[in-house]
Amino acid sequence: MNIASKTLIVTGAGNGIGRELTLQLLALGARVAGLDINEEALAETRRLAGEQADGLSTHTVNIADKDAVIAVVDEIRQQHGQIDGIINNAGIIQPFIRVKNLDQATIERVMNINFYGPLNLIQATLPDLLERPQAHILNVSSMGGFFPVPGQVVYGASKAALKLLTEGLYAELVDTNVGVTVVFPGAIMTNITENSGVKRDGEDAANPPKGAPKGTMPADAARQMIEAIESNRPRVFIGKDSRFMDRFYRLAPVRATRFMQKQMQKFIKLD
Ligand SMILES: NC(=O)c1ccc[n+]([C@@H]2O[C@H](COP(=O)([O-])OP(=O)(O)OC[C@H]3O[C@@H](n4cnc5c(N)ncnc54)[C@H](O)[C@@H]3O)[C@@H](O)[C@H]2O)c1
C-alpha cells in the first residue's frame, strides 16, 4: 500500500515505537489517528510532529474497552472521512514474575490490552478497510510470542495469541484488498518497562544492565514496519535477536528454550 494520503490508526502513539510510527507516517504524507491511554504522552507526540501535526488527530482511549474503541473509530471516520490502515502497536509487558506468583488482575490486564485490544480495533474497522481500494492491518506481536521467556510467560501467551490471530486474518483476507502483517520485534530501546508499570529499582529498558545486548532503536523498528506495509509483507522479524531466535527455535526448540532461560538468569532475578 502506498502510504501518502492514506489515513492510518496507530495505537500506543504516545511513546516508543508508536510515536516513531506516527511521526514517520506523517512525514510520508499520511494522515494519522493516534490512540493512547496516556493523554500527556499523546500531546508530546503532537508537539514533536510540529508543522505536520495538521495531519494528526489524537484520541485518549483504553484499547481494552471495546465500546470506547467503537466510539473512537466513529470519531475518526467523521474527522478523516476514511480509514485505510490500522497499526495495533500498543502493548504492555508483565512484571518479571513466575506464573505461580501472578495474580488474576495482572493476567487479565495483559491479555485485555495485548490480545483483546487489537481484536477490538480490528472488528471496529474491518468493514471500513474492506471498502477501500487498498488497506492494511499490521499487528505488533513480539519475539516472545514465538518462543518462551521465563518471567514473561503470560505476556508471551498474549503475543502468541495475537500472532495466530494475525496469521488467521491473513488467511481469511488473502484474496481481498486488505494486506495483513505480523511483526516480531526483538528488544527495542523504549521505556516499555516503566510504561507498563513494572519497573523495578535499577532497571531501565532504554539503558539495559551492563553486558546485556543492546536492542534496535524505535525509529528503526518503525521504519521497518512501514516498509512492510508498503511492500505488503506478511511476516517481519525486527533485530538480529529476533531473526536468530526464529531460526534457532524452529531448528532446536528445546535447546533454544534452555538457551533463553540461561540468558534471562544472567540479567533478571525472578520473583
Ligand atoms: N520494547 C521492546 O523491547 C518490545 C519488544 C517486542 C515487542 N514489543 C511490542 O511493541 C509494542 C510497542 O512497544 P514499545 O516498546 O514502543 O512500548 P512503549 O511503552 O514505549 O509504548 C506503548 C504505548 O502504548 C500505550 N498503551 C498501553 N496500554 C494501553 C491501552 N490499554 N490503551 C491504549 N494505549 C495503551 C502506552 O501508554 C504507551 O504510550 C508493544 O506491543 C510491545 O509489546 C516491544
Written description of the protein model:
With 271 residues, the chain is α/β, with parallel strands linked by helices. The protein has one domain: Rossmann fold, CATH 3.40.50. It binds nicotinamide-adenine-dinucleotide.
* Individual helix count: 9
Q: How many strand segments?
A: 7
**Main CATH class:** Alpha Beta
The biggest beta sheet reads: 7 strands, parallel
Structural class: alpha/beta
CATH architecture: 3-Layer(aba) Sandwich
Radius of gyration, taken over Cα atoms and rounded to an integer in Å: 18 Å
**Major sheet: arrangement of strands:** 3-2-1-4-5-6-7
The domain count comes to 1
Strand content: 5-15%
Secondary-structure element pattern, one letter each? EHEHEHEHEHEHHEHH
Helix content: 40-55%
Bound molecules: nicotinamide-adenine-dinucleotide
What is the typical, i.e. mean, pLDDT?
A: 95
- Terminus-to-terminus distance: 45 Å
Overall shape: it is globular
The CATH homologous superfamily = NAD(P)-binding Rossmann-like Domain
CATH topology: Rossmann fold
Protein name: Oxidoreductase, short-chain dehydrogenase/reductase family protein
Family: Belongs to the short-chain dehydrogenases/reductases (SDR) family.
Organism: Reinekea blandensis MED297
Domain Ketoreductase: 6-181
Which features does this protein show?
Rossmann fold, 7 strands, oxidoreductase activity, single chain, 9 helices, binds nicotinamide-adenine-dinucleotide, seven-stranded parallel beta sheet, 271 residues, alpha/beta
